[in-house]
Amino acid sequence: MAKDAPLHYANFATDDIEEIFARFPKIKTWYFMGHSLGAVVALKQALAYHNKVKVIIQIAGRPKIDISHTNLRLLNIYASNDKIAKPADYPNFKSNLPKDHQCHVIEGGIHAYFGDYGVNGFDGKPTISQKSQTTQTVKLILNFINA
């Protein structure tokens, strides 16, 4: 998270990306990825820097922003038993997706298993292990990036 993020909330930070781009001038194509609210930040920043960012990977992040008009590639991965980013909500955002997109559901997975911060009381009940969900997620990301 940005040191200077207002209220210590990364969603409000705006300066760090320019600094990162400047530190790595040889990188011409950037992939932005985020989980949950981090997926919202990644999407907003990708739109702001669409000349450098080509791919967005959203993990348990609903694509609420309309990017259907962009040339961005989008991978959206969510979990069937997620009670935070509920799978039933995803069809509501289909019209926001760019032409080049893929959506995948991890059957039996939950919101917290996309990270390693522990399960909270708001999430659903998993029917797969965290290792299985992590393995499936990594494979989906690598397949998308290498396609």
What labels describe this entry?
single chain, about 150 residues, alpha/beta, 3 helices, globular
Description:
Helices cover 24% and strands 18% of the residues. It has a 4-stranded parallel sheet with strand order 1-2-3-4, sandwiched between helices. By secondary structure, it is α/β, with parallel strands linked by helices. The protein is globular and about 45 Å long. The protein has helices spanning 16-23, 37-48, 130-145, and strands at 30-35, 53-59, 73-79, 101-106. It has 3 helices and 4 strands; from the N terminus they run αβαβββα.
Poorly predicted ranges (pLDDT <50, ≥5 residues)? none
The share of residues in helices is: 10-25%
Largest sheet: 4 strands, parallel
What structural category do the secondary elements indicate? alpha/beta
SS field, number of helical segments: 3
Principal-axes shape call? globular
User: In total, how many beta strands?
Assistant: 4
- Rg calculated over all Cα atoms: 15 Å
The helix/strand series, from N terminus to C terminus, equals: HEHEEEH
Which strand order do you get reading across the main beta sheet? 1-2-3-4
- Averaging pLDDT over every residue, what do you get? 89
Could you give the distance between the termini?
Answer: 30 Å
Gist?
The protein is of the alpha/beta class and 147 residues long. The protein contains three helices and four strands.
